[in-house]
Amino acid sequence: MKVVGYAGSRSAFSKSICLGEKLKTMLREKNIEMELYTARNNVVEECRGCGKCFDEGLCPQDQEDSMEYIRKKILEADLIVLLSPVYLNNVSGAMKTFLDRIGSWVHTLALSGKMGIVVTVTDQSGQEFVSYYLQKLLLQMGCNVVGEYKVVALEELDQEEVIERIVSNIVKAFFDQEQYISTADLENTFQYLKARFVNADMEQYKDESYEIKYWYDSGMAECETFQEVLNLRKLQCRSDVHEV
């Protein structure tokens, strides 16, 4: 069971990073290893808008900053935790930059077969939109969001209790194998994208377009439902384990 977290904060006094570190410690007590990456300790440059991630399936900037390594770790993970402070009723600039860099995954459902947890931290307001936004993006990348947590720093709140709830949720989600359970929202997302990338008009371009080629090479083009995609991912995961 692999958990990867990203905290979109550069603050030396970041509550989001603090929560992530405590979560990492508590998960270790449950024999679940979590790797935590932060905007403070990693270099993630702003997207230049070149479009190569959509056209060619790669980002040339990955060779220049920390994203190649972080991207690899996320794709290897079973569960992704996004932690963001709320700035001006939105995600932090650092979190938005990170999301821009993985934005092409919304066309390939690259996080299918993975689970997600969203944690937002604010002093007063803005969490409803920020939490919804983060959940929506994970969903559009094929990730089953199994929990959202809102922490209001100015409230009298036992953060240890919040983290214990997150840990309990993660343990249960792994036990129930929720990464392989589809939802109505995931099914709708899959059907919309399949109609866009898998059809007679688009198939002729599969050798020219990374996104169309990915749908065919990954086996998703042959699937009628997203649950079939998850079943395929489960078989692939078992095969990888046996090979190791």
UniProtKB/TrEMBL annotation:
Residues 1-152 form the NADPH-dependent FMN reductase-like domain. This is Flavodoxin family protein. It comes from Dorea longicatena. It holds the Pfam family FMN_red. InterPro entries: Flavoprotein-like_sf, FMN_Rdtase-like_dom, ISF_SsuE-like. GO terms for molecular function: oxidoreductase activity. Keywords: Flavoprotein, FMN. It comes from the Bacteria.
